[in-house]
């Protein structure tokens, strides 16, 4: 998610569709870097936490801003989203990649 770009619902739909298309119909883990993302409206947050995410991805790892406010907002999102897949917050890309690689399916 790009810095200083206010996302629309159409943007979220295109982003999610592109990620799903890229998987080649395999259920794989997904990394989202939201360190510089602007806050999302409720309908956009629902788009990113709906059944399409759960049905198409095996885990969801976030790289988040380590400052207290960024971490608090990400934790709040996870609590509200209540996804039915493994989901976790990380401070660095390396940490999240290692965690997500452990959650790949044998064929993914």
Strand order of the largest sheet: 1-2-3
* Low-confidence sequence ranges: none
Order of helices and strands: HEHHEHEH
Count of runs of 4 or more consecutive helical residues: 5
Radius of gyration using CA atoms only:
13 Å
Alpha-beta content class: alpha/beta
Terminal CA distance: 24 Å
Overall geometry: globular
Number of domains: 1
The percentage helix is 40-55%
Task: Please characterize this protein's 3D structure.
- The structure is a single chain.
- The protein has 108 residues and is an alpha/beta fold.
- It has one domain.
- The protein is built from five helices and three strands; from the N terminus they run αβααβαβα.
- It has a three-stranded parallel β-sheet with strand order 1-2-3, with helices on both faces.
- The mean pLDDT is 84.
